[in-house]
Request: fold
Amino acid sequence: MAEKTIYELSSPGRQGVQFPEADVPASGMPKEFLRKDLPLPELAEIDVIRHYTHLSKLNYCIDEGFYPLGSCTMKYNPRVNEDMARLPGFAFCHPLQPDETIQGSLSLMYNLQEDLKEISGFDEVTLQPAAGAQGEFVGVMVIHAYHKAHGDGKRTKMLIPDSAHGTNPASSAMIGYDVVGVPTDARGNVDIAALKAVCDDTVAGIMLTNPNTLGLFDENILDVIEIVHKAGGLVYGDGANLNALLGIVRPGDLGIDVMHFNLHKTFSTPHGGGGPGSGPVGTNKKLAEFLPGPIISILEEGDDELPPLYGFKQPKHSIGRVKSFNGQFGMHVRAYTYIHMHGPDGLRQVSELAVLNANYLLSKLKGTYKLPYDRVCMHEFVLEGKFDDVPDVHALDIAKRLMDFGYHPPTNYFPLIVHEALMIEPTETESKQTIDDFADAMLKIAKEAHESPELLQTAPHNSPVRRLDEVKAAKDLVMCCWLPDKAE
Amino acid sequence: MFTPHTKTEREEMLRAVGVKSMEDLFVAVPQKFRFPKLNLSPRKTELEITSEMSELAYANESTRDLLCFLGAGAYNHYIPSAVDALVHRGEFFTAYTPYQPEISQGTLQAIFEYQSLIANLTGMDVSNASHYDGATATAEAVILAYSNFRGKRTKMVVSPAVHPHYRATVRTYMQGYEEVTLIGDTPSDPLESPDSLISLIDDQTALVIVQYPDFFGRIYDYTKLSDTAHKNGALFAVAVNPTALGILKPPSEFGADIVVGEGQPLGIPLSLGGPYLGLFATKKEFIRKIAGRLVGETVDQDGKRGYVLTLTAREQHIRREKASSNICTNQGLMALSSAIYMSLLGKQGFRKVAELCYQKAHYAAKEIASIPGFSVCMDTPFFHEFMVCCPQPVEQINTHLLDHGILGGYDLGKDYPALKQNMLVAVTEMNTKEDIDIFVDVLREMSNG
Reply:
């Protein structure tokens, strides 16, 4: 039986939460503005608790098991982060309170900016962007603003390697850039000859994902950056894969001009079933004045007696606001907690073990699954989910069959440059034992693909629902459940 | 920290990979820059970090310590315990975006219900699965209008009484649309009535956007404005406060095509401004133009009801540079919080909260108006927020209020220089009559009389 919707569970007259009666004299209400009906469901508190508890049990999650979703960095989300974000002093401050009443939060944000600068090698960081995609958009806008400020109006092209993240083209298009693709060479690096061929004085910049979506660190990274810089372009770094680089290399040191961070990937803030994320952006000195604000700064230095006074500043030629208020503060608290529980050595260990886990898992699978670019990988790797001798079994079938073994599937069909891609990112929080077990399941599935392919093609068999009819969903477009009396 | 590897396991794994040391895994990284020494504070244990964080949190004075009359786009409401108890379940907050529907039905059905609740609350046909916040949802409405007319209409009429952060965000988002002009939002008199926007609407107008109640707390009937927009072929968008819709007519009744808004009042903590929730709902005809995720109902291969992300061909990962928005991660967990909040309050509780806000705000307004030198300077109905004209600059009054443990209203002079003596006061169900009386007494100390 499918779980009923909250509207189907509704019973007229029920109420979950009571509120006190008004303690003030009644004022008349403006009749012409009052609504007739408020079509919300009516449930008791226990109905609501049970309903959402039932729903929660239909989800797979990190707490339940291994979640090797490539490019998403599904690491363990420490519980202490959650408690810290819920401290009343953090959770209940209004965003427009006077600075002197929120010095604790401002100092946290200031120090998080400083930490992110140190980790990445950038000179300035804004915490404002709401998610990675918005951080990317900010990065592209900052590049746009820089060229505009230099009267360089003919730069209309944004270079995007075909091994970059999927959001990059959309982010570039939002500012009006023409997207120009750059191919990948046989070793999985940006194709230098192809890059040179498209680099001219119309290039605004390049959006580089490094390690790229193949999980490979570009062996010519310094050349790539130099070629773009020589053409007068700027280099945007997609920070989604930063989990491979903590204490290993700082993108700013390599010459990258601007990069976003995903606090919800690298710094363990939870993914929340689709959000919230948090996408701070770092830049070098020459782009800092264009960042969106407000940025937290020290207004008055402290001394032995007094702590510094923190406040907001707007960068001199800021592109402006990209959201209300001060960014996803609750996520800043979690990321700060995480960084401070690791320190410099702990962060380096995070990346080392993320990379070790990926290479270890790769070593177990590469004899069975085709590996298009056979090199030491970083925090993730991409295999082909396809066997030449069983053409009717696809990456999707392997992904769905993994559910029967109690795993979340890897990312599939991305990146597009690998045929039937399975993109696998184990993260550092998984043990050798977990990886061994997962590898066993992958090897067993490969065997099944040859011996009983229908097992894969009809998978999953044990999940709350079987494969869903996506065509029907797109055709019928049922996006709402209605109250019984509103049903058509 | 949070890594389970023993030393022996590490060595076994390195051997299996075929390298001698951890360092050997990073030979592709330019040697010159490899393994930088990070100048960060040394690691802390859970016990130590908890104590540091508690100190930082304690250094703040929150709305739990101060009497709060501050709103301006973020509101202090009661959040029932059951909301966080459910949101705190690992099954919800440690799951990813539901790209694998067979093992994500919990998230998918919850979003489907969220979409239903928002559609019903706003009177629209369809809601998406959320945007980042009220400001970015407003910007997405402008982008929708632009793409609806395929770039042929380039005028966006924006009311000056739309939240200043939303307007600023729209301007930022429009930087890539050089042909688009935003008009109406910087008049000589920011308090002029919305009907003064009528003369700006013509056959080049793609969108007219207003707020309801507006940033100054005023409630207007937008029928005439909406009709004019539609007569000229333009779309009409309304940014709402969802709590107000507990008693006020939904914007569908004056013809809104798009409803956006800040969903924070729906069970989401103030948290210094985020994470919040961007509401985005439209009429059915715009369904394929909505940015962001949408959940649709379907069946599985056994005919059992289930839910999937649908119309994904609109999104950035498929359409790439042809997509109108790049949003992927949204505010999923906040959408869930708001769905639980709305379910818990239900028809009666939700209306009750709106009524309490209305009654307490009107009591406060009446009391403040009785203080010599202060007046409630608006001639329209209002919901839970209203403008007070003060005898001194608001900045001075707020300093005095803070000395008495009161978080005064928003200083409108920060965004509208002409209004530096205008305070925007918000009152919710959290303010008791006693709080309001204290607030009024302290204001009275600042009166001219």
